[in-house]
Amino acid sequence: MRWSQFFIPTIKEVPADADVISHKLMYRAGLIRKLVSGFYTYLPMGLRVLSKIENIIRKEMNKKGALEILMPTLQPRELWETSGRWHTMGPEMMRLKNRQDRDFVLGPTHEEVITDLIAREINSYRQLPLNFYQIQTKFRDEIRPRFGVMRSREFIMKDAYSFDKDAEGAKKSYQDMVDAYQQIFQKCGCSALAVEADTGIMGGESSAEFMVPSDTGEEEMVCCEHCDYAANSEKAESHGLFDQTGDEGALEEVHTPNCTSVSDVSAFLKVQPSCLVKTLLYVHDTDKKVLVLVRGDRNIVEMKLIQYLHASDLRLADEKEIEEVFHAPVGFVGPQGIMGVRVIADMSVLGVVSGITGANKKDYHVKGLNLKRDVPSFEQAHLHQVLQGDPCPKCRKPLQIKKGIEVGHVFNLGTKYSKALGATFLDQAGQSQLAIMGCFGIGVSRTMAAIIEVNHDEQGIVWPVSVAPFEILLMPLDSDDKNMLKEAERIYTSLQEQGLQVLWDDRDERAGVKFKDAELIGIPYMIILGKKSMAKGLGELEIRRGHQKQDVPLDQIVERSRDLIGHAYRDLGFLDVPQVQGAL
RNA sequence: CGGGGCGUAGCGCAGCUUGGUAGCGCAUCUGCUUUGGGAGCAGAGGGCCGCAGGUUCGAAUCCUGUCGCCCCGACCA
Length: 584
Prior knowledge:
This protein is 28% helix and 28% strand. By secondary structure, the protein is an alpha+beta fold. The protein folds into 3 domains: 10-237 and 401-453, BirA Bifunctional Protein, domain 2, CATH 3.30.930.10; 252-381, YbaK/aminoacyl-tRNA synthetase-associated domain (YbaK protein), CATH 3.90.960.10; 465-571, Anticodon-binding domain (Rossmann fold, 3-Layer(aba) Sandwich), CATH 3.40.50.800. Strand 28 (538-543) and strand 29 (548-553) form a beta hairpin. The protein is globular and about 95 Å long. It binds one RNA strand through residues 11-17, 19, 36-37, 143-144, 146, 260-262, 278-281, 294, 299-300, 315-317, 322, 326, 329-334, 357-358, 477-480, 509-517, 519, 528, 530-532.
């Protein structure tokens, strides 16, 4: 491709609304432009990158036997009523009506559609297993789109859905996808970590997220440096810590005027916050009350509580509700002597034999709380937030907390959707069975941003070859020099004949402009032709990453480039240089 | 949903406090010079100052409303 005939609108200045590096660089390098908040146009350079990521995904999916399909973006309300998600999804799902006043949703995901399809098409165990995938535009009306293409309202996603006849098959399908995902992200140049995760709105049994470690990530994960434990912080656990010591004693009221918070009480009584037991009253599924106990210096993760309760909604009780249960005002409540309310104790308070908590009386707390003695019956669960340094649940070594970008998510769905939508088949014994499902997503557009987050420097993007819009940039510096142009033309044709994707900067620009643009757009390899070295029969071959340069005789430069690029592909885990496909 | 900030030329901004009909840098166009790290000189084009009302002889500027964009936060007894 000749630069002058392509469209690469680079800009020097950063638009005021770009905040993170990938967003700034995508804008400046002419990959994307914004339409409105959360909606972006991919310009030719951006689209090439996207297509490359998609092709890497296709190849790995196909290797595992998944079959590509394409489902509608618009889906009828009825399907979502059937699965129950018309009501549980909330306002992030975009809904609209057609002229007959019929409700539709702009698909945020496709479990309903695919399961409906399978329910109609599959009758026998002989047809299973199946794994269908698509690469398609999804819509989620995010509260706050941000970081450019990283969290947008319209985005491109690869979603795959597996259907198995038994648990063993489902397990294999799941593992196949995990393996494929590792391959995909490695080949895209943004190796991802698989971490245990919450199933969220998808429902189902278990799930793992694929995270690219990066400080701009929105997700927090907990990982162990010593073993392979890694989990999303909404799911992470720590080893049963906090065996609280202290002398057992009788319950004793203490006067704590106006001390309504943990910090007030611990300061007033001159004890560590960890000596307190926080008593939280939650309301879930509209009117069910549950009392949660957690150590004073810890917070609970509401997501964990929702999971534990299988609740569809959850909120803290208001002052009135608290008064009704404890007959005491907010800030002075405790679990002792409370009857008729379900009590859940977090692991952090299980060992408490002399804790401090509210006395259920205004301006008073109690000392000497012994959980097992003073609370008639309680359940135990892991609800607290894991902090840096907490012991690993597997090996007890200190845990680390890191930020990451969620680029993929795999779910073991079980039979939630097959049951709701009637995806059954007859087994060998002629019995009707529910298909066991898995669903597997990759945020394609987000992956593009993640790749840039981990592959850039001061000057601009440093694309991994596998996803670079072009593999090599040909840069003759003097556009008036006939000889140089002739040589450039020769190299250009020759590179193309080698099957390489080459961008030829044929613009009549000064060298400085060309160099700056080249660094910005980040093509991984560059051939530079200058007057002086050409006179000696030499050209320069430069590697964008690290700016290593070498002089190479002109008659060898194409071959050397091809070798370098071949090595680069192999380093990323490819067996060979992929063939050019489609528009590329 | 709450809080904060911002809408002035394609992009980045100044001007607004103290009303008088708009300016700077980059980009664009023309010409000459320049040509291995975002060139120099000379000239040119381009803005209903987000939109709608109001105050005023007069509004980018003051007031009200509205739309859009960005950032932060999201309850812990």
